[in-house]
Design a protein that fits this description.
homodimer; 334 residues; Rossmann fold; Dihydrodipicolinate Reductase, domain 2; seven-stranded mixed beta sheet
C-alpha cells in the first residue's frame, strides 16, 4: 500500500527533525515530499542518506499526499492545512493555528489517541512542546486520581524558538566565554548567562502566550476543562531539552509511591526512581537526542496532603514536536 | 565610638563581598580584620583602596571585636562563633550552622529585625540566599494576608556555591563554546548548557538540603510554623543572580493589585510593574551587582481565587548573603 508523506516547513528546525524522525523510525512512507515557502523552495534537505529537493508548498503540492506533517508556523498552517485536507491528506500541524479549534483534535498518542478519530476538518493539532512532555507524565496520574491544579515552572531551551535562536544562543555563549556582553537580536536580550521570558504577550494581560497555551492545551488533551493550570514559562541558556518543575494536586489523594508505580508502566516515560542525590535527576543534556520523557524527583508534597511534585525533562524538538507528530502518523497508518 | 568588625572567611566569595559591601556602604568601622583558616592566613584581600593581611581565625583574633561577620562554612561557624561571642562580639553568621537553633535569631532586616534583639548566644544567623530574596518579597504580603502555601521553583546561580563553582561554570562555558563536552568537578556534571540539582541530600528522603532550608527558614523568619513551602531548587548556567518562580496562597484572598501596592512601598524591593512583555521582567544579568530584590510578573492566579504568582530575582552574593549580613550589622550599630 502506498503512503505519501509531505513535510511542510522542511527546512526549519522541527521540519528537519521530522524528516530525521521518519527516517530513524523507518516510517513506511512510499514517498516523502519536502515542502516549504518560496524562500526555501529549491534548496535541499538530507533524507535517507540522500537529499530531497524542497518544493513550494502550494495546493497542488498536496495532490496524492496521505499525511501532511506541518511545521511551518501558524499563518502558513491556517492557509495551507485546509487545502491539503481538501485534497484528502490528514494534516498533523505543529503550529498553534488549529489547537484551539473544537473541530481539530489535539493529540498526544500516549494520552488521547482516540481523540484523533474525530477530525471533521482533516486536521490534527500537535500540542506545544512544553505541554506535551507535561501531559505524558501527568496523563496516567490524571486517569487515576483526576488532576485538580497544576503549578508548573518551565526551564525551556533555545531550540524551541527555531534555528536562528539556537544560533544566537551559541554565538552569545561564545561572546560570554570571551568575556564580552552578549546582545540579543532574535531574543529580547542576553540569554547566555541569563534567563529570559521571550514569548509574545498572551490574550490575558500579565500572561505570555506560551503560558496560556499550557493552560488551554493541558485541559483539552486531558479532556477536563476544570483543571487549574498555573504556569510560569522561562527560557534558560540550554540549546535543546525543556525541563519543568511541577506541583500537582488531585481530586483524590495521590502518593509518590502510587505515582511511581503508574509512571513506571506509563508509555513514553523513563522514570528516575532513586531518592534525591546531587546530579542524579533528569537533565536536558541527557534527554536531548532521545525520545523519552524523563520523569524524576517524584515526591509527596511537604505541605499539601495527597499532592505531588515532579521534575519532567524531554527533548523539545523530538517528543515536544517532531516525534509526537510522527507518532500520531504511525498510529494513523498502523 | 569605636567599632571593630571582623570578617571571617575573608578570602571566600561571600567574605570578599562582605568587605566590598562594608566599604561601599561606608560602614562606620574603626577597624576591619580579615580572618580565615590556616590555609588562607597570610594572604591579602583588597579593602578601601589598600589591602588587609588575612589573619588566622582563632579565639584570640576576636579580642576587641564588636561585630564578627562569618562566612566560613558551617563547621568553622560551629567552632568559632561561640568563641567570638564569648569575647563580646555579636556574630552574624552566613552559614547554616545556627539557623535552626531556637536561641539564634534568623534575620532579614526588612522583615524581622526585631528578632535580632533576643540573641542569648550572641549569634544572629543570616538566612540562605534563596530564602532571603523570597521573604523580602513575601514578607509584606504575609503581614497583610498571612501566607498559607508557597510553591517555589528556583533558578540558582553558580556563585552560590563559591569561587571554584563560578570558575568551573566559566571554564565549562568556554569548553561548550569551543564545541567540547563540559565536565564537572565541583559540580556533579555539566552545568554549562544544562541544569543541575547539585545540593546535598536533605534529612528527608527525596528532598535536597537546599529545599529543606527554604521550608524551615521561611517559617522561622516569617514567624509562622504553619506556612506550607514546596520548593524545587535548580542550578542554572548563570554566574550570579538567583531567580524564583513563586505561587503563593494566603489565608485571606490577595489580589495582584493589592500585592503591587504593598510591594511598591516594601523596603528593599524594586517592583517591575508593567504588564507582561517579552524581555521586560527581572533578569539575573541586570540584578547582579545591585542591592535590590527585583519583583515582577505579579499576577492573579488563573486557577486559585485569591492566590498570586511572582517572579523574584536578586544578587545572591549581595542581598542573598553579604549585604543582608552587613545590613543587620548597620541596624545593630545604628
Amino acid at each position: 500500500m502506498s503512503c505519501v508523506v509531505a513535510v511542510v516547513g522542511a527546512t526549519g528546525v522541527v521540519g528537519r527533525e521530522m524528516l530525521r524522525t521518519l527516517e530513524l523510525r523507518r516510517f513506511p512512507a512510499t514517498e516523502v515530499r519536502a515542502l516549504a515557502s518560496a524562500r526555501s523552495a529549491g534548496s535541499r534537505v538530507p533524507f535517507r542518506g540522500g537529499e530531497l529537493e524542497v518544493k513550494l508548498a502550494c495546493a497542488e503540492a498536496f495532490d496524492g499526499v496521505d499525511i501532511a506533517l506541518f511545521s511551518a508556523g501558524a499563518a502558513a498552517a491556517r492557509e495551507l492545512a485546509p487545502l491539503a485536507a481538501a485534497r484528502g491528506a490528514v494534516v498533523i500541524d505543529n503550529s498553534s493555528a488549529w489547537r484551539g479549534d473544537p473541530d481539530c483534535p489535539l493529540v498526544v498518542p500516549e494520552v488521547n489517541m482516540d481523540a484523533a478519530k474525530n477530525r471533521p476538518k482533516g486536521i490534527i493539532a500537535n500540542p506545544n512542546c512544553s505541554t506535551i512532555q507535561m501531559v505524558v507524565a501527568l496523563g496516567p496520574l490524571h486517569a487515576a486520581a483526576r488532576l485538580k491544579h497544576v503549578v508548573v515552572s518551565t526551564y525551556q531551551a533555545a531550540s524551541g524558538k527555531g534555528h536562528a535562536a539556537m544560533d544566537e544562543l551559541i554565538s552569545q555563549t561564545r561572546e560570554l566565554a570571551a568575556g564580552g556582553e552578549p546582545v540579543g537580536n532574535v531574543f529580547p536580550g542576553a540569554l547566555a548567562g541569563n534567563l529570559l521570558m521571550d514569548w509574545k504577550a498572551g490574550s490575558l494581560p500579565d500572561w505570555s502566550e506560551e503560558e496560556l497555551k499550557m493552560v488551554n492545551e493541558t485541559r483539552k488533551i486531558l479532556g477536563d476543562p476544570e483543571i487549574g493550570v498555573t504556569p510560569t514559562t522561562v527560557r534558560v541558556p540550554v540549546v535543546t531539552g525543556h525541563s519543568e518543575a511541577v506541583h500537582a494536586q488531585f481530586h483524590r489523594p495521590m502518593t509518590a509511591a502510587e505515582a511511581r508505580e503508574l509512571l513506571r508502566r506509563a508509555p513514553g516515560v523513563r522514570l528516575f526512581d532513586e531518592p534525591y542525590a546531587p546530579g542524579k535527576h533528569p537533565q536536558p543534556r541527557e534527554a536531548a537526542g532521545t525520545d523519552d520523557v524523563f520523569v524524576g524527583r517524584v515526591r509527596d508534597d511537604l505541605a499539601v496532603p495527597g499532592a505531588l511534585n515532579l521534575w519532567i525533562v524531554a527533548d523539545n524538538l523530538r517528543k515536544g514536536a517532531a516525534l509526537n507528530a510522527v507518532q500520531i502518523a504511525e498510529r494513523l497508518v498502523g
